[in-house]
Amino acid sequence: MSQKNEFDLIRLYFAPLADDKGALNLQDDAALYIPTPGNELVLTTDTIIEGVHYLPDTPPEKIAAKLFGVNLSDLAAKGAKPKACLINFAPHKNISEAWIAEFTAQVGAALKAYDIKLLGGDTVAAPNQAMFSLTLIGEVASGGMVQRGGAKIGDDIFVTGTIGHGFIGLEDAKAERSSPCRDLFEYPQPPLAFALVAASYMSAAVDVSDGLAADLGHICKASVCGMQIDLPAIPFADPVSKNLLAQLNGGDDYQLAFTAASENHDKLKQLAAEQSIQLSKIGHITDGSDLILLNSDGLTLDYSSTGTSQELPSGFSHFGMKK
Amino acid sequence: MSQKNEFDLIRLYFAPLADDKGALNLQDDAALYIPTPGNELVLTTDTIIEGVHYLPDTPPEKIAAKLFGVNLSDLAAKGAKPKACLINFAPHKNISEAWIAEFTAQVGAALKAYDIKLLGGDTVAAPNQAMFSLTLIGEVASGGMVQRGGAKIGDDIFVTGTIGHGFIGLEDAKAERSSPCRDLFEYPQPPLAFALVAASYMSAAVDVSDGLAADLGHICKASVCGMQIDLPAIPFADPVSKNLLAQLNGGDDYQLAFTAASENHDKLKQLAAEQSIQLSKIGHITDGSDLILLNSDGLTLDYSSTGTSQELPSGFSHFGMKK
């Protein structure tokens, strides 16, 4: 894109999406955001790079869907309502207008679905590899942000949805197979509506993006606690597969893993049912510092933290704390 | 960088810079920002791409300095005090630890100089070309943001500093010549302190990043007005050069151009003097829609809006409204 076309394209495709007053008609280099009184802001940003997060021939609508999905998942884990966003848009210098039209159509669909205001951003043509960053601004009632560090000994551990559909979906995408897992991998559906009503009943939360094992490790590290996880209780996307460890470590699930005190269980189950969200109790917080995985025999399982997709062996060990 | 090294490097080099409570020790995928009561937020983001905004062999401290300079300049033009930031850090996959150390040292210097809190961001290795985005959060008293659209007929037009040092600095950098213009080009020094005290006396403002002519055009378009500019009054970095048009269009000056009612002139001059800021009155707002450039004979000058660095011809025309 030439510099001139770039401006034309902003006007043509992004300006109609940026209809909030704070976007200043995208005629400015900055945007105005007026926080809702009594609220605090939750900020998150994630970058999607061609050749790292998606293959060069990925359709633009899938890139835009992923860009919003991964960031919305981060806000869900904080119990934060998405309010506004900025997009750093750096497509290939030789992309077509049709590409931009398809990308921005999906951006518009995400903005509408989640009631997010596009306030601004930055557009530049990338010479060698495209890259897109989304910065999301969410709000929580003051003091209401769910953190990773709030888990207490005795709390139970829950996950929403299924675990491992990210890994299986990637395999299906590579093999060009259609499947429900591939749909979830390409169009992440973080349980945001559930998170917003359930956040006040959670003691700690994380979104499952790095792999359930690693993400639970984030809670252990931040909360300075251990975990005991019941392997048969994990809702694997493909529970009869031999690649359970790969499903556990594959990431890209964009579900929530969270902890909660026992008095909140009934309320959480009720809220999940109201939202048609699958909710599974998979273990509890311990006073150690390790993540112990128990199989159906009650034996702890040997586990290598390298994240390779070997079959789950039996024996004893624990997850290394990643990150 | 491998995935593992990436996490190590965040911890080693970015974590010490992210010492605000809202950064959550960079152990989370989101950050907390608590707005100051009575304030509104000004958001800006800009991306720096290897091969577009800097040459591949540019020292990392210059890349970091530019990343902060261009974004701080945007906040200055709004009269907004920088408060916090997020960094999308996508260096080359094969960069050295020394490179990261130098980059983050300059980031640390900028955070300290402007009292900005690093709250978070995103790190990923870029396979083909590095890219860095900075999202800055600034604050203004409610209703106090200077906009591009506030210029009134009869207002005078001012610029801070000199115009054209960006263009000359780039030429010097290409020729590997040391010069004060090159220093300003590589280490932008937007007049932020002046902007913060003077903003309430401005009716409209813009930072000079696209070139003075284009940036004044932004004010014309947003304020629905025309301008008459006195060429001899423009404080060119090299006023005896034959490339005045290039200095006018080159951009990368990161100074302020703003408009103000006549009753505010004395106060603005006083504030500029207190800050040792060069302040030049270069024209006034008209009721037309064109940007008219007058030379020393009082004749309007022919001007091509293509932004080429041809010598200024005499004759009659006006600036096309560039975005």
Description:
Chains A, B: Mg(2+) 4 binds at residues 29, 44, 74. Chains A, B: Mg(2+) 5 binds at residue 210. Chains A, B: One of its GO terms (molecular function) is thiamine-phosphate kinase activity. The structure is a homodimer of 323-residue chains. With 323 residues, chain A is α+β, with helices and mostly antiparallel strands. Chain A has 2 domains: 3-141, 60s Ribosomal Protein L30, Chain: A, CATH 3.30.1330; 148-294, Alpha-Beta Complex (Phosphoribosyl-aminoimidazole Synthetase, Chain A, domain 2). Helices cover 31% and strands 23% of the residues of chain A. Chain A has 9 helices and 11 strands. Chain A has helices at residues 3-14, 60-76, 97-114, 165-174, 180-186, 192-198, 212-223, 244-249, 265-274; strands at residues 31-33, 39-49, 81-90, 117-123, 131-141, 156-160, 204-207, 226-230, 256-260, 279-286, 291-294. In chain A, the strands form 2 sheets. The first copy, chain A, has a 6-stranded mixed β-sheet, with helices on both faces. Chain A has a 4-stranded mixed β-sheet with strand order 2-5-3-4. In chain A, helix 2 runs parallel beside helix 3, helix 2 packs parallel to helix 6 and helix 4 crosses helix 5. The longest helix of chain A has 18 residues, at 97-114. Chain A is globular, with a radius of gyration of 21 Å. Chain A starts with a helix and ends in a 29-residue tail after the last strand. Residues 302-323 of chain A have low confidence and may be disordered. Chains A and B meet through strand 1, strand 2, strand 3, strand 4 and strand 5 of A and strand 1, strand 2, strand 3, strand 4 and strand 5 of B. Strand 2 of chain A pairs antiparallel with strand 1 of chain B.
